[in-house]
Amino acid sequence: MKILITGGHITPALAVAEEIRERYPDWELVLVGRRFSLEANKIQSEEERLAKKYNLEFIPFKTGRFTRAFALTTLISLSNVPVGFISAINIVSSVRPNLIISFGGYIALPVVIAGKLMGIPTVTHEQTRKRGLSNRIIGLFARKVCVSYPDQKGVYTGLPIRRSIFEKSKPPAGVDSKRPLLFFSGGSTGSQSLNTIFFECITLLTKRYMVVHQTGRASESKQMENYQSFPYIDLPEYAWILQNAKLIIGRSGANTAGEVAALGKVALWIPLPWSGANEQYENAAFLVNKGTSELIQQKNLTQATLISMIEKMVSNYESYKNNAEKYSREISRNAAGKLVDEIVKLPEV
């Protein structure tokens, strides 16, 4: 059995790969993803780096995407759409998988369509509260659509989360575990716009807190007392930080939001304004309605609004924490297993 895994979200893909390897060690797994997270800067993608770490065969893939805003970069991206589709056909015909597992996004779309043309079934998983354009199209070609929330249309499995997120680990070097911990993150690739504001707040916040900052590989790090920055924080250190952070501050991508919620943590979200279908806002607003979080729109983000919101949340921390722990008990920690259960129900598997 050969499985081709693709999509824009790497962490649930890894969670499912772990589950498959444990249950079906003879299955072959191939990951198709971006070579560069930031094409202009030629920065290695986390997909490629983590594929190597997890000993997954990795095939780099480049395609275009449709965007709402029109600019020169839009034309360049659109010109890569047919090139990407031809590349997807070549990859699928070369690998000849028995099944494609999609984790959505523009990367997965041409691969799923190529698979459909060759008679290869797809199981796709939707991580977000609201589907973007690519995922809606993928759903038309997929044999089965699995979803993260019980009120969504599809087969409810929950969000696949890596097991090590829940395991005990040691803090990263240089992190004072005795001080209340704030974790700043712009997501796996970082966010230069958020980093600018975060850097303005560090001097004040480090008087009271230990601040850990995932900057992304395109940003310069800073060094000061009670502050540690990392381009990217991987497991097991990442698990320790999430488990021990008093407050998590940053982007509300589906997988970060899901991991934070599953651990019963309190968060201050700053959604990416141009995420597809405004999905990051939807993810954040859902957790705000659960009473576990707050959000600040990026257009309203300043040093003053950020500090003020942190102080408000710390002052009312027990209320947020109780709500977060209550909601965490509703979240399945075996979503990867449920997704694999759905996969093996297919007659081709």
DSSP strand tally: 15
CATH architecture of the largest domain: 3-Layer(aba) Sandwich
Fraction of helical residues: 40-55%
Helix and strand sequence: EHEEEHEHEHEHEEEHEEHEHEHEHHH
Oligomer: single chain
Structural domain tally: 2
Q: Kindly provide the radius of gyration, computed on alpha-carbon positions and rounded to a whole number of angstroms.
A: 20 Å
State the CATH topology of the largest domain.
Rossmann fold
Q: Identify the overall geometry.
A: globular
Strand content: 15-25%
Mean pLDDT: 90
Number of helices: 12
Largest sheet: 7 strands, parallel
How many angstroms does the end-to-end distance come to?
A: 7 Å
Let me know the CATH homologous superfamily of the largest domain.
Glycogen Phosphorylase B
Main location: membrane
Family: Belongs to the glycosyltransferase 28 family. MurG subfamily.
GO molecular function, one term: UDP-N-acetyl-D-glucosamine:N-acetylmuramoyl-L-alanyl-D-glutamyl-meso-2,6-diaminopimelyl-D-alanyl-D-alanine-diphosphoundecaprenol 4-beta-N-acetylglucosaminlytransferase activity
Function: Cell wall formation. Catalyzes the transfer of a GlcNAc subunit on undecaprenyl-pyrophosphoryl-MurNAc-pentapeptide (lipid intermediate I) to form undecaprenyl-pyrophosphoryl-MurNAc-(pentapeptide)GlcNAc (lipid intermediate II).
